[in-house]
């Protein structure tokens, strides 16, 4: 049997040296990665996620961020161990076949128990955050009804104030910052999805089912909103925005709307 020389016989031919990427070959990907990072102009520790413009959305962000840190820890340990074994125990000239064994019960227990603990930690952290995010206030500052229909949204405030889509005149939901708004979400016809990316929040609007949730904005600004369920021909027209203002500005806006105007 021909003995392979692992050092010299490579896929590029006997005695050749395979070079996946030459010296210059590394420069382009590194430069592109750096440029992408610089262009994104966001905090590296956000990992490209929305940090959440509500207290609920921030909770979700922090959970997700923690998961990524945990995954990084696992990656460092796993790839570190792999690299160590490759470098320390790689086959060398003159090496024979290593000692063969059927199993190693101790190691098998360790690599079963550790992932089980990690999964359990992730599970209970998720349940804790879910309970916090899904908690609905009994005495909210504001009660708001959101109705999805083909193809638009209606935001109904107290005192008969209502903001509704009119063709391509997309509606804007106004919310007070730092106050809890309890949203009652319904659908008039088919399944829609109330989705505000900056809030890290999406929920079905289901015909015949009423969903309640709280939104407690913690950042001023205007955020885009979308229908996240393909709900028919003009689904793409189901755009809206959310404007978070100070409670004083909110009260001024609400009373100005109350004077017979429907935006
Ligand atoms: Cu829709």
What's this entry about, in short?
The chain is of the alpha+beta class. The chain contains 4 helices and 12 strands.
Folded structure, characterized:
By secondary structure, the chain is of the alpha+beta class. It has two domains: 36-89 and 103-135, Helix Hairpins, CATH 1.10.287; 142-258, Sandwich (Immunoglobulin-like), CATH 2.60.40.420. The chain is 35% helix and 23% strand. It contains four helices and twelve strands; from the N terminus they run E-E-H-H-H-E-E-E-E-E-E-E-E-E-E-H. It has helices spanning 27-40, 55-89, 105-134, 247-258; strands spanning 9-10, 13-14, 142-149, 152-156, 162-164, 172-176, 181-187, 192-196, 201-205, 211-215, 221-227, 240-245. The strands form three sheets. A five-stranded mixed beta sheet has the order 5-4-3-7-10, with no helix packed on it. Strands 6-12-11-8-9 form a five-stranded mixed beta sheet, covered by helices on one side. A two-stranded antiparallel ribbon has the order 1-2. It is elongated and about 90 Å long. Residues 6-18 have low confidence and may be disordered. Residues 148, 192, 227, 229, 231, 235, 238 line the site of copper (II) ion (CU).
Strand content: 15-25%
Order of strands, main sheet, comes to 5-4-3-7-10
- Ligand types: copper (II) ion
Overall mean confidence score, pLDDT: 87
Low-pLDDT residue intervals, each spanning 5 or more residues:
6-18
Q: Return the string of H and E elements.
A: EEHHHEEEEEEEEEEH
